[in-house]
Design goal:
Elements (H helix, E strand, L loop, with lengths): L1 E2 L4 E2 L2 E4 L1 H10 L7 E6 L4 E9 L4 E8 L11 E7 L3 H13 L4 E5 L10 H21 L7 E5 L2 H7 L5 E10 L3 H6 L6 E6 L7 H9 L3 E3 L8 H16 L2
Parallel strand pairs: 1-4, 7-8, 7-11, 8-9, 10-11, 10-12
Antiparallel strand pairs: 2-3, 3-6, 4-5, 5-6
Helix pairs in contact: 2-3, 2-7
Bound molecules: S-adenosylmethionine.
The site of S-adenosylmethionine has 19 residues, from β10 and α7.
């Protein structure tokens, strides 16, 4: 489990909230079961469940080790997703986290159907961050992707412009086979990958991304659903450069 070093004190760690729920209800851990905790400093702690109550789980630490190698993948992939409807964005966040996405930028695309503002937006962001945390835990990632909101394609493109490789998934992107285009490049430290919502990009959004140096690429002649496009491309990038 990924835990905070602040939760560890005097040889014990105790958890409420999501982590308690996951340990006690989902995995049904009980006193005497062993767990491996990893904190944000990269230290791993072998522990034994000491007590499980309705509200919290306490773990007694039996051994701790020096920082371990991180499981964060190289290159760091940022998925920039035009906001689609609820279940689609959740699929991208959950499966993208499993596939090793480093962070997610969600943006309000011109053709995004959901219109989120204020408290509603904040509560969705909290929910999305919980989905990512849960997926990171499930896939035994010791880091956790962040989910950031941008009000437009132009804002998201500008925020990601520092990436070494910037790809815009666009049905009408360059027809050169993607394999040939990517295979010749050295491994980028940071990749940004922009995907449109269900209705696709408006021309001005494609212009904004290309202005910031995004290369329009196609995944072939078949039109993929937005969530398929984001996840398929992430898997391709991991196949080429991931660890
Ligand atoms: N008919 C829509 C349009 O007019 O733009 C298609 C949108 S598609 C369902 C949603 C997003 O997935 C697109 O904006 C693009 O980013 C990505 N996508 C889908 N199929 C793709 C393909 N063959 N090549 C590249 N990107 C694709």
């Amino acid at each position: 489990f990924m835990v905070s070093s602040r939760s560890i004190r005097d040889g014990y760690a105790s958890y409420d909230g999501d982590l308690h729920h996951h340990m006690a209800r989902v995995l049904r851990l009980r006193s005497g079961d062993t767990v491996l905790l990893v904190d944000e400093l990269g230290r791993s702690h072998q522990g034994v469940i000491d007590q499980v109550t309705q509200e919290w789980t306490a773990v007694r630490l039996v051994a701790s080790s020096a920082p371990a190698a991180t499981t964060a993948t190289v290159p760091a992939i940022t998925v920039i997703q035009g906001l689609p409807r609820g279940e689609k964005v959740e699929l991208v966040l959950q499966k993208g986290t499993e596939l090793g996405v480093h962070d997610f930028f969600l943006f309000r695309a011109d053709r995004s159907v959901p219109r989120l503002n204020g408290d509603k937006l904040q509560s969705r962001l909290d929910r999305w961050q919980r989905i990512v945390a849960e997926a990171a835990r499930q896939s035994e990632r010791f880091d956790q992707p962040s989910v950031l909101w941008h009000p437009s394609a132009a804002a998201a493109a500008a925020a990601a412009s520092g990436a070494d490789l910037k790809l815009l998934l666009w049905e009408r992107g360059t027809s050169a086979p993607l394999r040939d285009k990517l295979a010749t490049l050295p491994c980028p430290a940071r990749i940004a990958l922009a995907v449109g919502p269900e209705g696709g990009f408006e021309a001005e959004e494609v212009e904004a991304f290309t202005f910031w140096g995004f290369m329009p690429v196609t995944l072939g002649e078949r039109i993929l659903r937005t969530e398929t496009a984001a996840l398929a491309m992430t898997a391709i990038l991991q196949y080429i450069w991931g660890d």
